[in-house]
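Closing statement on the adenosine-5'-diphosphate sub-project.
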Amino acid sequence: MTEIIRARNLVKRYNGFTAVDGIDFSVRRGECFGFLGPNGAGKTTTVRMISCVSPVTEGELVVNGMDVCREARQIKSILGVVPQEDNLDPDLSVRQNLTVYARYFDMPRELANQRIDENLALFQLVEKQHEPIWALSTGLKRRLIIARGLINQPKILVLDEPTTGLDPQARHLVWQKLRYFREQGVTMLLCTHYMEEAAHLCDRLVIMHQGRILVEGSPAELVEQYAGREVAEVRVSGPQRERVLAQMASRPGLTVEEVEDILYIYARTPDGRAQMADLLLESESVSYHQANLEDVFLRLTGRGLVE
Ligand code: ADP
C-alpha cells in the first residue's frame, strides 16, 4: 500500500501557543487512520492543516503527492470534509444543501444531480430530501453532512468526531456506511474520542496529547503493548493495599497503576487472570475486563480531567 499523506515535523502555532508540536505520521492509501486524544490534543488542528483550511506554521505536509502550502486548490478537490459542527444551511432543504455544496466543485448539473440521488439513497435520505433542516433529527443531520462530504467522490474523507451526540442506533448506521466507503477504497482520517469507534473502524491510529504523538499502531497492537490482556480495577486501602503492592514485585506478568484509592492491575500473560485473582483474593471490590483501547488511552494520557 502506498503513502497518501505524509507529515514531517509538522508544527502549528497560534500567536505563540503551540497546538501541534512537530509531529510525524504517514497515512496509507485506502486505510482508515485515526487521531485519538483528549480535548485540546491537537487533532482538529492537524486535520484542518491536511484539509488546507489552516496554514502550516512549520514542517512538511504532503497530500496525494501535493504540498498543502502550494497546491491547496487541487488538494481540496480530492478531499471530502465532515466537520465536527453542524454547518448545514438552515434556510435550505436537504437536497438544496447538497446542490449548493456540489457547486463548489464545478460539477456539471446533471452529474451533480446523479451524485446527489446516489448519496441520498445510500444514506436513506430520499424521503427527507425536501424537508427543511430544522425538521431533521441529530442523526439525520449527521448522515446528511457525511453524504455532503462525499458529493465530489473524494479520495480522502476527513471525519472530525462524526458520531458525537448520536444515539447507539444512529452511530452504528454511520459506522456501517463508513466501513462501506473504506471497502470502496476511500482513505479515511478519523478524529474521535470514542475508543469503541476507533477500535471498530481504524486500521491504524495515533494517540495525541498536548500537540504531540505519543504512540502509533493498530488498535490490537496498542492494546497488547500498553494494556496487555486483562485489567483488574480494585478499590483497596490500608494494609491490604500495601500487601498487594508488595506482592506485585514477584509477579513479572503484572503491572500496576495507582490512581487515588483505586489500583489498576494489567496482566499480559495467559495466566494473568488467575494471578490477579490470587493476588486480590480478599478484596471484594474488584472488577475484571478484557484490555481495550480505552485502557491504553487512559494509561497514556492520564486519568485526570483535561478541562
Ligand atoms: P482537539 O481537536 O484535539 O480537541 P484542537 O486541535 O481543537 O484540539 O486544539 C488544540 C489546541 O489549540 C487547544 O489548546 C486549542 O485551544 C488551541 N486552538 C485551536 N484553535 C485555535 C485558534 N484558532 N486560536 C488559538 N488557539 C487555538
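The mean pLDDT is 92. With this model delivered, the sub-project is considered complete and its resources will be redirected to Aim 3.
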